[in-house]
């Protein structure tokens, strides 16, 4: 029986976002997973983050508590999900799995993934119109939604162009909504997306 772990050798993850470090194998009959450990080597320190064995799942490094998990239901998928990434999370992560064969011998495999944590500026936002589109009958309700990507949190601000070509500030938040549109609501609207 041939077992191998697969995953990428390098990942760029977004600061304050979440990332999955893929580690997977194709299950083989007569081979039962015994242990899974995820460990990390940082610039200054190293240690075991996560261990899964017969007694359950254990997060061993306090700075990862409540931030890491491994799927439970998918045999062969032992990827590590990390939430709310900090720059200090960068380092080399190792996925180490052992299996027991029917003759009680143990097989062990590991792969390593280098993780960089990058700060990403907010992209130029796009505006999505509500179901009725951008030409809407008076009296109807509608909304515009502003969307951008980048390191969270992203904040949004809505403006409307005035006749003098100035920007009139309307509100914050990703969504701009109207309950009952009036003809006077016609105009040019724009949104701004920003992060740290």
TrEMBL record:
Molecular-function GO term, any one: complement component C3b binding
Domain Ig-like as annotated: residue spans: 16-112, 125-196
InterPro entries in the record: Ig-like_dom, Ig-like_dom_sf, Ig-like_fold, Ig_sub, Ig_sub2, Ig_V-set, VSIG4
SUPFAM superfamilies: Immunoglobulin
Pfam families cross-referenced by the UniProt entry: Ig_3 (PF13927), V-set (PF07686)
Gene3D superfamilies reported for this sequence: Immunoglobulins
GO biological process, one term: negative regulation of T cell proliferation
Name the UniProt record assigns to this protein: VSIG4 protein
Originating organism: Smithornis capensis
């Amino acid at each position: 029986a041939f077992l191998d772990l697969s995953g990428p050798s390098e990942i760029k993850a977004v600061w304050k976002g979440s990332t999955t470090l893929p580690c997977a194998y194709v299950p083989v009959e007569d081979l039962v997973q015994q242990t899974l450990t995820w460990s990390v080597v940082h610039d200054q320190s190293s240690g075991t983050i996560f261990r899964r064995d017969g007694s359950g799942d254990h997060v061993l490094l306090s700075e990862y508590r409540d931030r890491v998990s491994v799927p439970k239901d998918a045999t062969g998928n032992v990827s590590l999900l990390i939430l709310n990434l900090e720059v200090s999370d960068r380092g080399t992560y190792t996925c180490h799995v052992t299996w027991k064969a029917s003759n009680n011998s143990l097989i062990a495999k590991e792969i390593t993934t280098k993780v960089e944590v990058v700060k990403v500026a907010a992209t130029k936002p796009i505006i999505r119109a509500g179901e009725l589109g951008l030409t809407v009958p008076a009296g109807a309700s509608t909304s515009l939604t502003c969307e951008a990507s980048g390191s969270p949190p992203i904040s949004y601000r809505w403006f409307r162009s005035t006749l003098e070509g100035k920007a009139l500030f309307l509100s914050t938040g990703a969504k701009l909504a109207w309950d009952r549109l009036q003809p006077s609501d016609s105009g040019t609207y724009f949104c701004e997306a920003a992060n740290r």
